[in-house]
Predict the 3D structure of the following.
Amino acid sequence: MANAWKRESSKQPKHLSPALLLLSLPLVLLLFLFFFNARSPLNLPNSTLYVPQVYPIPPFDCLKSPQAHPVVANIVENLKYPFLYSLSDFGSLPDKPHKNIVRLLKGKPFRKPDISATIQQLLEGMKGRNGLVVDVGANVGMASFAAAVMGFKVLAFEPVIDNLLRICDGIWFNRVADLVTVFEAAVSDRIGNITFYKLVGRLDNSAVSATGAKLAFKSNEEIALQVRTIPLDELITDSEPVLLLKIDVQGWEYHVLKGAVKLLSRKKAEAPYLIYEEDERLLQASNSSAKEIRDFLLSVGYSHCVQHGSDAHCTKA
């Protein structure tokens, strides 16, 4: 057998003639193209071609923003889907440090924000559904990150640059850059600019109304800023599914809702679950009221609202 193998292997290989090679090249090329297209993911029955969303205003670019400092971050406690966030309020060090600084020094996680637990409880029942979570008045991202770490895509709106930088921190900490899109804008019922009041020394309680901004912290000085405004209906297309809309804008809720009339008018199966802050004092500071909001929501089909603390949860019955 060994000798037979040697005899066979010693034969000179046959070469194709140049004419036959030229004739075979087009056939080989056709076979290659057919094989490549057959394996291409674009032809798979369940695949979708990703087309980047083009928005009427540009998203906030965390890569080009300055780094917030100092940075103190920790994981939050007692959430099924925990996330990290960057502490924004340090208190008066060292005499009266913020409670989360004390917890950090003791090796404990940060206390979970109520809105984070609420968002995750609601989204637990929506897992597997396709759609956005829209966070209006994102502050430092407590609702946004609670949703993103569960795998939901988020549109977050926040006009205060200090808060935006903390959101950028959280995007890096939680590895959710592909899930969270941030806009440096105040959501309203028209495109333009508006005067916005930020409290000195605080990252919360900023508001369109100077009175509303200072309701809880009367001793803090406020700074007037010009910020961009945009309605949700200008940014969210009719074909974009939205699962949940959370609004916390210190009394400006009515104007946010009026700018989302198309979104809120969707039929029951496509209308988002709505959470908004309903604080009568803040609403009156912005020349609206809880009744005005409820009447508006009823006109677009949101007939079932339940109060949870200072928040109203509304759906289409």
